[in-house]
TrEMBL record:
The keyword Signal applies. Belongs to the NLRP family. This is NACHT domain-containing protein. One of its GO terms (molecular function) is ATP binding. The keyword Cell membrane does not apply. GO terms for biological process: inflammatory response; innate immune response; regulation of leukocyte cell-cell adhesion; regulation of T cell activation. It comes from Scyliorhinus torazame. It holds the Pfam family LRR_6. It is found in: Inflammasome; Membrane. Residues 32-133 form the Ig-like domain. Residues 277-408 form the NACHT domain. One of its GO terms (cellular component) is cytosol. SMART domains: IG, LRR_RI. Residues 1-20 form the signal peptide.
Amino acid sequence: MTMENLLCITFLFFQRLIFSEGSFSQVNGVLGTDISLPCTFPVAVNFNLQDLVITWQRTAGSIVVHSFYSEENHPEYQDSAFKGRTKLFPQEFPIGNAAVRLKGATMSDQGNYTCYVIQEDGKGYIEHSVELELYEKTLVPGTDDKNPALEKIMPEFSIGISVGTLIALIVVGVGLYRKQKKSQYHDEEAPLLGDGVEEAIQLFKAYIMKNTTNCFDKVSQRKPKTYSSLARTVKVTCPKEQCTLDDIVESGTSDIEREVNAAHLLSLPQEKMCSSKRVLLIGDAGVGKSWAVTSIQQEWAASQPSPPASCVIVFRFYDFNRVEGKTTLRKLFEKQCAPLSPVLTELLSNPRGVLIILDGLDEFSHQLQWDSLDGDFNIDTKAEVNILVSKIISKDLLKEAQVLVTSRWNTKPIEANKKYFDCILIISGFTNDQLRRYCELFYQGKEKAAKMYQHIIENDSINYLTSNPLNSYILCNILDRCSCSLDAITQLPVTNSKIFLLFLYSLVNCDAAEKFKSETEQKLLKDTILNLGELCFNSLLSGKLELKTDDLDAYGINPEVLSAYFSNLILENTYEGQSTFEFQHGVLKEQFAALYCATSLKDDTEELIKSLDLWCFGKMPLNQKSQYYLRAFKPEDTEKMDNFTRLLMGSLRAGKDSTLWNCNDPLTRSTTRALITWFKNHLEQDIKKSEMLSLMRCLFELHDSTVTAAVSPHIKSVDFFNISLSPLDLTALRYCLSNSTVDTLDLRLCTLGDVGIKQLKEVLFKCKTVLVSSNKLTEKSAEILSEILQGPKCNIETLSCGTNSFGSKGAQFVWKALAKNQSLKSLRLYDNQITDEGTENMVQHLRCNRTLEKLYLCANKFGDQGWRNIQEAKKLLNGLKIVTKIVEEEDLLLRVETQAIQLLSQSHEYNREWLRKIMESILKDLGDESDITDQRTKTRVGNIKENINKLLCQEQTMSA
C-alpha cells in the first residue's frame, strides 16, 4: 500500500469520526475553482451498488444538484444551474464516500447543501448538511486554489505538501473541527438547538422513555426493539402523479416499493425525488401504522444524539376529538409534551428538524378546513382544532417542520386531502417471509415459531387473514395460550370476528392455573365482556381508547377482571397511584362494541335492519326510539362505521349465555330471511364503489352459507376501479362471487399483483368482462390467465390487461391460450413491454382461434421483425382487427382526446416530469397527422398535438 493510499484511508477514517448521521460541516472555497462537498456513509455489510441512492440537493427549495441510483447518474432530475458541473466518484462508494465535485464555483453556488444516502437494507442512511462559503482569493497563503484536506479524497488530485505534514494537520484539525462543527451546527439552528432547548429535549426524551416504554413493552411481548427492527413493505408515491390514463399509452404512476423498518420510513421520499415535509402514511386497520409511529418516537428518544430529527412529537387524533371550543397550538403542545413547554417559542420559531406525527386521521371526528380564517397564523392564534390541524398540513403553520400523518386508506378525507401531501407511503400487510420473522420474534423459539408459521401458510384463509399484523398478534397469542386452539382454527371459516371470538375463548378458558370455571365465574366474564362492549359502543365515534375508572364503575366493570383476563387486549397504566386502562388498538374496541350490538340485536330483525341501514348507508329510520342508535350519529359517519359494521355481521353467529365465544351458533330463520332481503335490496340499487365493497366485506364476515348462496347470484357487476384491495378484500371478493356469474369485473388499479390474480382464479373464468389493467402483473399472471382462457368453462368475452409487465414470455402464454379459447372477443395487451420475440408464433396460434375480434397492441416495444409479424397477422386473419396505434380505433382516440384535454386543463396538479413524459408518449404514438387520410381524424389529432405542444413549451419555459 502506498503512502498516498494510506493517507487517503486515514483521512476517510477521520471523516467517519466527524460526519455522523445528521451531521453538518462547512467548506470554504475560491470562486472559479472546483470545490468538493464532503459526505460519507456507513457501508452496509452486503453492499450492493444497485441498491445505493445518492442525492445532493440545495437545502432551500430542494433543488436537485446531483442524482444517482440504479448504478447510474440521472441528469434528467438535475437543476439546469448544475448540469454538466457535478461529478461523483463511484470507485469510492464501497468505502463510504458520497462526496460531489462542483466545477467552476460561482457566487450563486454559495449556500447550504444536503446529501442524502440510502441503501436497500436501511443501513447507511444519512442526511448530511454542508455550508459552502466562497471567496475571491485563496484562504491560506502558500497553497493553491484548492482545499488540500478535502481534495485528497479524490484520487486524481495531487497535494503539494508532505505526507507527514498533512497527517499532522488532519490530526490537529479533527479536534478543532469537532469543536467548530458543534459551534457551526448551533449557529445555523440556534433557535432549535440552543442550550435551553437541548436540555428540554433531553427531559422530553426521558419523559417518553418513562411513560411509553412500559406500554410498548406489553404490546410487543417485551420485545419492542426486535419488533421495531422488523422490516415492512412500503410503497412510495407522489399524490400529484396519481392520475390514471388507463387505455391510453402510459401509466401515470411510477411507484417504488421498499422493505424498511419504521425508523427509516421517512428516508423513502428521497428515493422518489419527493419532498418529505408533508408525508401521509396509509394502510388497512391493524396493519401497523401506530406501531410504526411509536417505534419512530421510541428510537428517537433512545438515541444519543438524535438522528435525523432533533425532536419527535406525536399527537393522536382521538385526543384532538376531546378538545372543545377554540384553542391554540401552544396549548396542544403543552398538553402533549409538557417538558418542552418552557422552550416552545424557541423550538417552534424555527422548527426545521422537528418531526410532528399526527396519528389516526380516520378517527378524527371533525372535518379538515382549508379555506377558513385566512391570514397569518402562529402558535398563539386561537382557532378550532380542525383548523389548526389543517393549517399544519397545508404548511400555513410550522412550514419548515416535517409532518407525518397516518390514516386508514380508502376514506373520504384521504381522497379529498391527499393533494396537500408531498409524498404518500402505503404500508402493506405481512408477506410470508415477514410473517415468518414475526413468528420467530414472538415465540423466541424456532421450533414453535416454525410450527405456527407452517400451519398458517398451509391454510389459505388463515394466511390471508394474518397478512394483517394485528391478526397475526392475536393468532400467536391464541396458540401461545391454548394448544387446543390449533385444531379449532383449522376447522373454522376464518374471519376477523371469528378470530376475535376464539381469542376471547383462549383468554377465558385456557388458564393453566384453573382449567374449569364455575357457572358464576362464566357469567361474570360474559357480563364483563358485554358491559365493556356497551361502553365501547356508546363512545365508538369518539375515537377514545382510554377507559377511566369512572367509566368502568358506570358500566359495572370490575378493573380486577380486566387485569386478570384481558391484559393482552387492554393495557393497564398506573400514574401517580391512579390506574387507567387503554385498548391496545382501535379495532379491538370495535370488536367489543360489535359483539355487544350483535348479542342485543340478533333476535330482533326489525331493529337489526334499521341499524344496518343507518350504519352502512346513513339512512335515518323514521322510528328513532331504539337504544342502539348512536345519539351523535350523522349520515356522513357511515365511513367510520365500516369496520364496526362488518365485525357486527360476523358477531351475529356468536353464542349466548356461557357460550358467548362460540362462533358457530346458527342464525334464526327470521334473521336469515331478513339479511337475505337486505343484501338483495341494496345490490339491486345503484350504489357507490365503497358501499359495494362494504357489502361484500359484510357478507364475507357473516360467512353464512345459506345467506351467501341466496345473495351471490344477485351480484351482476363489480366496479372497484382505483381502489386498493388488500389480500383479505380479495378473499372476500372471491367468497362473495362463489355463486355469481358476473357481467363486468373492473379491477383496474387495484394493486392486485400476481398474488391477487392467483387468488381470484376461481371466479375470473365466470365473468364476461374482466378489466385488470395497471396492476403490476408479470408473466406469472399471464400464465394464470392463460390457464383460465384455455378452460372449457371460460366465459370471458373481454379481457383488458394493459399497462402491466407481461413481456414477451407473457405474450406467448396468451397466444397459446387463444389457440384453444372459445369465448374471447376483445383482448387489450397495450403497454406490456412486448418485444419482437413476443410476436413469434402469434399468427400460428391466432389462426386456430374463431372468436377474437379485436386485439390492442399499442405502446409496446416492437422492432422491424415484430411489425412484420403483426402485418402478416393482419393480412392472414381477416376477421381480427389488430390495433397498434391510437388513431386506428375511434373509441380509443376518443378516450385519449377527452382525458388528455382534462389533463391539460389540470396540469398544475401534476408532477411536471411525469406530465411531460406522458404527453411525449402520446405524441409519439399519434405520429405525423399528414399520413392520416380522414380529414376529421386528421384535424382532431392535430388539435390534440397542438395543445400538448403548447403545454410542453409552457413547462419548458417555467423550468428554465
